[in-house]
Amino acid sequence: MDIFVILSLITGLFFFLGGAVGIIRMPGFYSRLHPAGKLDTLGIFAMVMGLAVYNLHHFSLESLLLSIKMFSIVFFVFLSSPTATHSIVDAGMRAGLRHWTKKKRKG
Fold first, then answer.
1. Per-residue pLDDT tens digits for 74-102
2. Cα(101)–Cα(86) distance, rounded to whole angstroms?
3. H helices then E strands: how many in the chain?
4. Nearest-CA neighbor of 73 among 44, 53, 46, 50?
5. Residue-wise over 62-80: b if at least 16 C-beta within 10 A, else e?
6. Distance (Å, rounded) from C-alpha 88 to C-alpha 46?
7. Cα(first)–Cα(last) distance of the chain, in Å?
8. d(CA 16, CA 44)
9. pLDDT of residue 107
10. How far is residue 18's CA from residue 24's CA, in Å, rounded to a whole number?
11. Contact (Cβ atoms closer than 8 angstroms) between residue 64 and residue 25
């Protein structure tokens, strides 16, 4: 069980780091929203799954209810993150923010 918890936490950390690198490396506003919207949900799912399993190590009703509450937080993040990303893109489109285009080299 401890190995599963460690692997789950490392997987969540990998997704969070991937999202951070994606936000830094992507060239435009709209392309930066993709890693911000996708990888944070995968990262929080993996991290909370590991923490919920670790919490169930000493099984009791309280630990079961706490694990259910943790997964309900993940459920609400799954619902709100794509909605928030869509709202940010919509606000950028309404504000007239253009898509990133690759500039041609002179030469």
1. 999 989 988 898 899 999 999 988 888 87
2. 21
3. 3, 0
4. 44
5. eeeeebeebeeebeebeee
6. 25
7. 60
8. 8
9. 58
10. 10
11. no
Q: If we measure between CA atoms, which residue out of 13, 2, 96 comes closest to residue 56?
A: 2
Q: Which residue has the tokens 């830094």?
A: 24
Q: What is the pLDDT of residue 16?
A: 92
Dmax over Cα atoms in the chain, in whole Å?
A: 70
Q: Cα-flanking dihedrals φ and ψ of residue 2, to 5°?
A: -65, -35
Give the whole-angstrom CA distance, residue 74 versus residue 4: 19
Distance between CA atoms of residues 10 and 25, nearest Å: 22
1/57 Cα distance (integer angstroms): 8
- What is the value of pTM for the model shown? 0.78
29 pLDDT above the threshold of 80: yes
